[in-house]
Amino acid sequence: MRQIGYSESLLIELKIQKDNTHFVTLTVFSVDTTASTVTINQKAGQADPANTSPINFTAVFNEAVTGFTGSDVTIAGTAGGTKTVIVTDSGDHKTYNVRSAG
Known about the structure:
Blueprint: E1 9-17, E2 23-31, E3 38-42, E4 55-61, E5 84-89, E6 95-101
Antiparallel strand pairs: 1-2, 3-4, 4-6, 5-6
C-alpha cells in the first residue's frame, strides 16, 4: 500500500557574505509528518443498495493531498467481474469522487 501525503515545508535561507565572492547558505526545512486522515461515504444521490454500475463515493481528507489515484483504492466483496476505480479531485485537493465500475 502506498502512503499518500502532503508535506508543507517551511524554507528559511540565510545567506552570509564572507567577502565579495563567497556566500554561505543555510537551509532549514520543517516537514509535516502527521499522516492524513480520510472519511469515505456513499455519494449524495447514489442509489442504496446499488445494483448498477457505476457506484460513487465521496472521499474527504482532513488536509490537502496529492497523488490519490484509483490504484490507492481496494475493492472487496463478492460481486463478480473486473472492477475499475476512477478518482477525480474536486479542485481543493481535499474532496474526491471515487467511482467504481465493472
